[in-house]
Amino acid sequence: MANKFIVTSEGWLRLGNVAMHRDLLQPGESCIGGGMYEFDYVNMRLLLSGRSYDFGRVKWSWIDRLIVDASLSDISNYYEDLPITDFVPIAYAQ
Fold first, then answer.
1. What is the DSSP letter of 87?
2. For residues 74 and 56, what is the distance between their CA atoms, to the nearest angstrom?
3. pTM metric for this prediction
4. Which helix (H) or strand (E) holds 66?
5. What angle do CA 34, 62, 29 make, to 5 degrees?
6. Which ranges of the chain have pLDDT less than 50?
C-alpha cells in the first residue's frame, strides 16, 4: 500500500493509500493520470509527483480545472515542485 493519487477525466483529484492507482477509481470513471502524494505539514503543502503505473503522468491539458476536496482548501497544491495552478485552476468542492 502506498499514498497514491489520480485525476479523473472529470477533473477530480482523488487521494488514497492503495495498492494500485486503479483502486481509486469509482465505477464508470476514467483516469487521465496519477502518481504519488505526500503532505508537507510544516509548509502546508500537498506534494504530488511521479506517474501512475496504470495511467501514466497527469495530462493536465485534458481538463479545464482540478476539483479538490474542500477539506484541503488551506493547503497549497504542487505537482513536481510547481504550483498546480501553473497547469490548471483549482476548484474546491464537498
1. T
2. 28
3. 0.94
4. strand 66-69
5. 60
6. none
